[in-house]
Write a structure and sequence with these properties.
This protein is α/β, with parallel strands linked by helices. The chain has 11 helices and 10 strands. A 10-stranded mixed sheet has the order 3-4-1-2-6-5-7-8-9-10, with helices on both faces.
């Protein structure tokens, strides 16, 4: 089981979106002599031809229905890139990926080398700056291959991330990370989940300081969604206040482990950002792991047997149901992205 216990939206206008039954689905490995291999999963608006299958399902987690390798629909489509959490993978956010693809978005999610379930190489894990580079690389690739996923509307690109993925997409929005700022904050909160990852992520290594502190802003990204991010106290207040694109910040209200307290993480972003550029909401009943995929009955026992303590991944707040949380999140995220990207029924297939 993935080791993610420690770390793992202004008024908006609703649009009537043209919804597709089952999105297309492709998995591709990107290889480049100058870059590391990158495994990529993409959902996209597709023709109804072909068979539908359930992907991302296993004995513990619920998957989503897709149409593998289906021909993409004609026209141009907005793009949403997704970044998973620490030692997570594309399956964790497949529920929002499939929902947005059904609304007409191309949705692309890489597995970040070193911090993904199936690649936890400690050397790669310390190259934290590569995460935003992975997302920019994915944007390049999706734009360059319209025959695979449909044409990308270059004026409508957004990024969404959970946990360490939230840190990743905030970096892409222009937030600058200062390791010394983060380390100093952790001296007051040594038990916080992200503080315990300082060494594993190379935040305290001198050789990494310049790269981690670099500007990772990707100006093609026009909106960002952060889901209960970590490492937030390392972002400089000046850089957060200078972010000039809309950001939706969603925090977990019922983090039973209190490892990523909303006030110290998502709340920090909200406090330091220009109020006209951000929306901030604490999601009632949600734990840090409520943003992951649905758990099947009996999943807690299965996870606990594989790795004692990992049953927490399937635990939501008291009386809360993850399916209801997801339904509410899809509505909020969709409304935010459709509004900020000016995407609606009138713009489907047009530019």
């Amino acid at each position: 089981m993935m080791c993610i216990r420690a770390f793992c939206l202004l008024t908006v206008t609703l649009y009537c979106i043209q919804v597709q039954a089952s999105p297309g689905f492709r998995q591709i490995t990107l290889s480049d002599p100058k870059s590391e291999t990158l495994n990529l999963t993409v959902w996209y608006p597709a023709s109804s031809e072909g068979r539908t299958v359930n992907i991302g399902s296993n004995p513990a987690f619920v998957g989503v229905t897709v149409n593998p390798d289906a021909p993409p629909l004609p026209g141009v489509h907005p793009l949403l890139v997704i970044s998973h959490g620490y030692n997570g993978n594309w399956r964790n956010l497949s529920w929002i990926a499939a929902a947005m693809a059904a609304e007409g978005y191309i949705v692309a999610a890489p597995d970040h080398p070193g911090t993904t379930t199936f690649d936890q190489n400690p050397i790669d894990a310390k190259k934290l700056w590569r995460r935003p580079h992975d997302i920019s690389r994915v944007i390049d690739f999706v734009i360059d291959y319209p025959a695979l996923f449909g044409a990308t509307d270059k004026g409508r690109i957004a990024a969404l991330g959970h946990s360490l993925g939230g840190w990743t997409v905030m970096s892409l929005a222009g937030a600058r990370f200062k390791p010394s700022l983060f380390i100093r904050d952790c001296q007051n909160h040594p038990k916080r989940g992200d503080c315990r990852l300082t060494e594993k992520l190379g935040i305290n290594e001198t050789l990494s300081l310049e790269k981690i502190s670099s500007n990772n802003r990707d100006v093609r990204i026009r909106a960002v969604v952060s889901l209960d991010l970590g490492l937030a106290p390392g972002f400089t207040p000046t850089s957060l206040n200078a972010i000039n694109i809309p950001v939706l910040i969603l925090a977990a209200q019922a983090d039973t482990l209190a490892e990523l307290p909303a006030g110290q993480e998502s709340g920090y972003l909200a406090a330091e950002m220009n109020p006209n550029r951000r929306q901030y909401e604490i999601v009632e009943g949600a734990t840090h792991f409520s943003f992951m995929q649905l758990c099947k009955p009996g999943a807690e026992n299965i996870l606990n047997e594989e790795s004692p303590g990992d049953d927490v991944v399937c635990q939501d707040g008291p009386l809360a149901k993850r399916a209801n949380i997801h339904q509410d999140l899809v509505r909020k995220i969709s409304a935010f992205l459709n509004s900020t990207l000016n995407y609606g029924a009138s713009s489907v297939g047009t530019r």
